[in-house]
TrEMBL record:
InterPro entries: Isoprenoid_synthase_dom_sf, Terpene_cyclase-like_2. It comes from Schizopora paradoxa. This is Terpene synthase. Its cofactor is Mg(2+). Its EC number is 4.2.3.-. The keyword Protein biosynthesis does not apply. Belongs to the terpene synthase family. PANTHER family: BETA-PINACENE SYNTHASE-RELATED (PTHR35201:SF4), TERPENE SYNTHASE (PTHR35201). GO terms for molecular function: metal ion binding; terpene synthase activity. Keywords: Lyase, Magnesium, Metal-binding. One of its GO terms (biological process) is isoprenoid biosynthetic process.
Length: 194
């Protein structure tokens, strides 16, 4: 419960900070953006529900463990990156893509749209490898807790895969071009709404 409340408080504070940045038209650099994105994306609120769904309460020592923390952050960052990738077209068409990894890397590194998309793909691959590596390094906390950790890791994996599937299947991000975007792996940028 404590983690849930803390994550909700962090989420509300981050949403307010992101709104101020957007209002002022300010885009952060990659590292501070990803730290803020973890909070204003609500991914941590979703992740804390893994424990509730499985009826478990992982000790603080698990969350303080470096390998678990790396697995956890890699999972959160994958969720954020894929959401930014899929939502960019919609956001840019509404003039609100200031805080999206596309905008961040295009501004910070001078990337084109394609280079930004490639960066997101490469970063996602790096995070998959990091999550797998970190998951394998989580030490034993005893049989019961180890089983709960495995459920948690599996839930993170399912959340990442489920998010990708949902984003590709819903018309929310690709509209009527959803099937064509999936087939051709090309996204036509929408015009900016007036």
């Amino acid at each position: 419960m404590r983690r849930f409340v803390e994550n909700c408080e962090n989420y509300c504070a981050a949403v307010a900070k992101e709104a101020k940045l957007r209002e002022r038209g300010l885009t952060l650099d990659v590292e501070p953006y990803m730290k803020l994105r973890r909070d204003f994306s609500s991914t941590q609120i979703c992740a804390v529900l893994f424990e509730y769904v499985h009826g478990m309460d992982l000790p603080d020592a698990v969350f303080e463990n470096e390998a678990f923390r790396q697995m956890y952050l890699a999972g959160l960052d994958m969720l954020c990156l894929t959401n930014d990738l899929y939502s960019y077209n919609r956001e840019q068409s509404r003039g609100v893509a200031v805080n999206n990894i596309f905008t961040v890397v295009m501004k910070e590194r001078g990337y084109s749209y394609q280079q930004a998309a490639d960066y997101i793909g490469e970063e996602h691959e790096r995070l998959v490898a990091k999550m797998i590596d970190a998951s394998g390094k989580i030490p034993s906390f005893g049989d019961k807790i180890d089983g709960d950790i495995q459920k948690y890791v599996r839930s993170m994996e399912q959340c990442i895969a489920g998010n990708i599937t949902w984003c590709l299947e819903t018309p929310r991000y690709f509209g009527v071009w959803n099937a064509a975007s999936q087939r051709d792996i090309v996204v036509k940028l929408w015009d900016v709404e007036s």
